Amino acid sequence: MIVERTIDPDQVGFDPHRLARIDRHFARYVTDGRLAGWQIVVTRGGEVAHASCHGMRDVEAGAAVEPDTLWRIYSMTKPVTSVAAMMLWEEGRFQLTDPISRWLPEFADVRVYDKGSLLKPYTVPAVEPIRVWHLLTHTAGLTYGFLQNSVVDGLYRAAGHDLYPPAGIDLAAACETWARLPLLFQPGTGWGYGVATDVLGRLVEVVSGQSLDDFFADRILGPLGLTDTRWWVDEADVHRLAALYVPSPADGRAVRHDGLGALGRTPPSLLSGGGGLVSSAADYHRFTQLLLRGGELDGVRLLGPRTVRFMTRNHLPGGNDLASFDPAGFAETTFEGVGFGLGFAVVQDPVPSRVPSSVGEYYWGGAASTAFWIDPQEDVTALLFTQLLPSSTHPLRPQLRQLVYSALVD
């Protein structure tokens, strides 16, 4: 399955000449070697107004980006896991205020980092349990080892949890480890990017009685016809998988990284609800359309419309933006004027970040520079796929917003 343009842009309020700027602009990244290749999809009113590919999915093999190219979407897995959890919530299986220790008892007596060094950290008891909504909003105090920004993420690395977990460990065992490590802050008092959505995936497993891959297949991927979305790429489709690249320290050109890239070609021992999926533009396009349409697509309803609206409101305490929490380390978003819902960043005010968008727009991205956003106010979605780690290397996301919104002229 591929995604192609389905309507003339001017029929849905886009100036086609202005939309053409998108391809010209991002082609420069390929010409000068900063990106190997990319794929972009822009829709309005459920119709594809712009769909383009450029460059190579595998430079060394001489293979071009094709409409059916497979991409490691990393943290764009998080919204899928959040939808899975909220499907169970709609069934009354838990409340958002429930402590997660009800299902994951290893998190019953978590402690919080207070002071000290990596060798001698001093911790205090958590005064508030980690609740389900803390996982969905990244306010649980969990972190990532690869951030390298605090004593706590240093403790994660010391336990073997860096960019990837130790070989052979599964999700249940990882949660046991994370529960023994201190939190960055008292639950609900801060915002920190980390393994919260992986823990949420484990919660989905325990509550549903299914492994995360089976739940995704039975309840989300199968019903929506997302045939390209999977946890790893087998030999039959490996030719479609884009190679993974990192910027050269010498000149910034994209350099192949097979060490990490190879992990997308083998079955994972840990099903990461926070970053484990591979997908295609066509599949993720259908996922965004499901959300834009209030949880229903082509007669398949996964969520109620009021649930989707609830998920895409700002749930941060006090209605604050992320900048108010002074978050440490990297995340797949700017912080100024941006809140966080149940699985998505949510725009409160586009002015502080100096990037055009609409109030109520929600979005996220992945570590290899993939991104999506959904704008209910303008009835617009946009998708960007490439394979460059880390996503902070180039300002691809704000530039795509500039080009898309400046092409919207009705």
TrEMBL record:
Swiss-Prot/TrEMBL keywords: Hydrolase
The EC number(s) this enzyme carries: 3.-.-.-
Region forming the signal peptide: none
GO function terms (MF aspect): hydrolase activity
Enzyme type, top EC level: hydrolase
Cross-referenced SUPFAM superfamilies: beta-lactamase/transpeptidase-like (SSF56601)
Residue ranges of domain Beta-lactamase-related in the record: 22-403
Protein name (record): Serine hydrolase domain-containing protein
Originating organism: Micromonospora zhanjiangensis
